[in-house]
């Protein structure tokens, strides 16, 4: 096991009122690209949100790279970037450059360093012509590239992407998924309904009604998932 | 009405944000308290236009700010024309419109992160009273960012209601707008937290 990128869940359950979103999940993960699949309401997003402290476990213990996501939330969020499915809901600042720079607030960086990092991200993700454009006026694909840039600029060690291609067309899905799966050096947890993307990962987790049904080699997990959902 | 930052190297762009804010507040107060005749309106207009020129912003940018403020101008001017002499109605409306357009000049020449820093510094003395300057600054920035988003929600609701043939009604418009805005506030809070910024 690679302890530097170890994600561990020990008998983790999450309750929302009387509904159990995640039920007694135990798993150890150290792969670079981890896919999370399952039908709507199966617990995928709750699993993802636990990794960044956006949700907290009702029972059990979560550790992400050795960090407790609730007690050490501030430290963890500097190491874990989160991409939401709806790009509109993650834009915090009015313009593209300002939104990317926002991720670097409070990190003690000089203005020059912030500007350099922001420029690098803008160029890498093909947003050069939109640097000072209104972030909300971008296309869906560009907004998701902006979200990716805003996450990557803070140089996290783990990226959690919760259905990042759900609202995108085929070309933008290909572009974003290639960025996430092939070009990034970081560890990735990818929550997706797109089984072709899940197949490109190193391991896959299948959630069903809040329970972890299967974890292992993606093709085998996907085949079993498809058999159970004919 | 809240202009997006336009990069530049003008004196207004380079001026420290806190000083610029004080100057703009001072200029707005001066326009509000001294502009009482048509000549003074023309003088104030010349001052605002000079400000845009100093910032290297074209007449087109200035015109777009006037267009953005058209509803304020209309809603202020129309009722006043009924009850006041035309010259007074025009002077009163022009005074407010000029302040709005001047405020837009501030946001056009100031990056939001710089505004955040200036707000944090300005609110720092209030920390001893339990006020968190970084939270105040964040609220200000999120308010500015959320205005176009909520305007987008309003347009979506109007379109959806038209598509279903629902006649315009204040309540059937306000309730979904409130729900969408609250949902957006939740999502935004998650997005801010996920980026490691503690609200």
List keywords for this structure.
A: 230 residues, Rossmann fold, three-stranded antiparallel sheet, 34% helix, B: 199 residues, mainly alpha, globular
Describe this structure in words.
Chain B: One of its GO terms (cellular component) is plasma membrane. Chain B: It comes from Agreia bicolorata. The complex is a heterodimer of chains A (230) and B (199). Chain A has 230 residues and is α/β, with parallel strands linked by helices. Chain A has one domain (3-92, 158-228): P-loop containing nucleotide triphosphate hydrolases (Rossmann fold, 3-Layer(aba) Sandwich). In chain A, 34% of the residues lie in helices and 25% in strands. Chain A is built from 8 helices and 9 strands. Chain A has a 6-stranded mixed β-sheet, sandwiched between helices. In chain A, strands 2-1-4 form a 3-stranded antiparallel β-sheet, with helices on one face. In chain A, strand 6, helix 6 (170-183) and strand 7 (187-191) form a beta-alpha-beta unit. The mean pLDDT of chain A is 90. With 199 residues, chain B is mainly alpha-helical. Chain B folds into 2 domains: 11-110, no CATH class; 124-194, no CATH class. Chain B has 9 helices and no strands. Chain B has helices spanning 11-14, 17-34, 38-54, 59-68, 70-83, 86-108, 112-123, 133-163, 170-194. The two termini of chain B are 26 Å apart. The model of chain B has no long low-confidence stretch (mean pLDDT 88). Chain A binds chain B through residues 52-54, 73-74, 77-78, 81-82, 84, 86, 88-95, 98, 101-103, 105-106, 114, 132-134, 136, 150-151, 154, and chain B through 2, 4-7, 111-113, 116, 134, 141-142, 144-145, 148-149, 152, 184, 187-188, 190-198.
Uncertain segments of chain A: none
User: What does the oligomeric state look like here?
Assistant: heterodimer
Q: Structural class of the helices, strands and pairings of chain A?
A: alpha/beta
Distance between the termini of chain A: 35 Å
Give a short overview:
Chain A is an alpha/beta fold and 230 residues long.
């Amino acid at each position: 096991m690679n302890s530097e990128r170890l994600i561990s869940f020990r008998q983790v359950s999450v309750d929302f009122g009387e509904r159990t979103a995640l039920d007694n999940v135990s798993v150890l993960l150290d792969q670079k690209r981890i896919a999370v699949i399952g039908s709507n309401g199966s617990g995928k997003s709750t699993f993802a949100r636990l990794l960044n402290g956006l949700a907290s476990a009702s029972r059990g213990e979560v550790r992400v790279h050795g960090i407790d996501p609730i007690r050490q939330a501030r430290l963890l969020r500097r190491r874990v970037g989160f991409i939401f499915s709806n790009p509109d809901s993650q834009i915090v600042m009015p313009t593209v450059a300002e939104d990317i720079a926002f991720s670097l607030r409070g990190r003690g960086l000089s203005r020059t360093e912030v500007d350099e990092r922001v420029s690098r991200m803008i160029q890498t993700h093909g947003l050069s012509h939109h640097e000072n454009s209104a972030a909300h006026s971008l296309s869906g694909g560009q907004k998701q590239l902006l979200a990716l840039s805003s996450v990557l600029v803070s140089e996290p060690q783990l990226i959690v992407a919760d259905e990042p291609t759900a609202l995108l067309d085929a070309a933008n899905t290909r572009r974003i998924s290639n960025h996430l799966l092939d070009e990034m050096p970081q560890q990735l947890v990818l929550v997706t309904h797109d089984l072709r993307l899940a197949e490109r990962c190193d391991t896959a987790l299948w959630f069903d009604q809040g329970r972890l049904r299967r974890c292992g080699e993606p093709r085998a997990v996907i085949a079993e998932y498809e058999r159970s959902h004919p | 009405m809240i202009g997006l930052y336009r990069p530049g190297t003008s004196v207004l762009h380079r001026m420290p944000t806190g000083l610029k804010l004080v100057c703009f507040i001072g200029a707005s107060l001066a326009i509000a308290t001294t502009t009482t005749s048509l000549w003074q309106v023309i003088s104030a207009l010349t001052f605002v236009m000079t400000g845009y020129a100093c910032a290297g912003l074209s007449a087109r940018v200035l015109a777009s700010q006037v267009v953005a403020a058209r509803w304020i101008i209309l809603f202020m001017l129309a009722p006043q024309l009924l009850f006041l002499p035309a010259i007074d109605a025009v002077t009163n409306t022009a005074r407010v419109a000029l302040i709005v357009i001047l405020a837009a000049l501030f946001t056009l020449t100031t990056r939001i992160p710089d505004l955040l820093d200036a707000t944090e510094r300005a609110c720092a003395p209030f920390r001893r009273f339990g006020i968190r300057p970084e939270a105040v600054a964040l609220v200000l920035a999120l308010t500015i960012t959320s205005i176009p988003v909520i305007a987008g929600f309003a347009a979506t609701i109007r379109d959806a209601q038209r598509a279903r043939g629902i006649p315009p009604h204040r309540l059937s418009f306000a309730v979904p707008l409130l729900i969408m805005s609250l949902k957006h506030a939740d999502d935004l809070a998650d997005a801010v937290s996920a980026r490691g910024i503690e609200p």
